[in-house]
Amino acid sequence: MIGYVTLGTNDLQRAAMFYDALLGELGAKRAMEMESFIAWATAPNTPMIAVIKPFDKKPATVGNGVMVAIMVDAKDKVHALHAKALALGGTDEGAPGPRGPAFYAGYFRDLDGNKLNAFFLG
To answer: Whole-angstrom Cα distance, residue 100 to residue 107?
Structure first.
């Protein structure tokens, strides 16, 4: 299954501050860090979300149709993560709410324009 997902950034330190605060809401901490790459995880040997400066040294761009989905264990956490992202300067891509039976999600973009969501199944 998924080991990690990387999102491109043009400002690693700005992205790091955003994700330190956002993923900290879920108990995630920096799990790996290099000069051009930082990854967060909630525990060792669990999936990670990372930000990276592109290897080819070209500007990072947002992939059309690409999205990272962050699973949480309650609807209130969907609201909390969505609100935290917006408070950190992210933009709204769809307020938290039901998206079909048993799927509850809120969508947002990070400071580089990468699309994410927080979702709950149940």
So the answer is: 15
Question: Which residue has tokens 């790091």?
Answer: 16
Query: Across residues 28-52, what is the average pLDDT?
Result: 96
Per residue in 45-64, pLDDT (tens digit) is 999 999 999 999 999 999 88
Contact 106, 82 (CB under 8 A): yes
Average pLDDT over residues 13-19: 98
- Bridge-based pairing of strands 115-121 and 68-71 is parallel
Buried b (16+ CB within 10 A) or exposed e, 83-120: bbbeebebeeeeebeeeeeeebbbbbbbbbbbbbbbbb
- Give dist(CA 87, CA 18) in Å, integer: 10
* CATH, domain 4-54+66-121, list 3.30.70.1020, 2.40.37.10, 3.40.50.261, 3.10.180.10: 3.10.180.10
pLDDT reported for residue 1 = 73
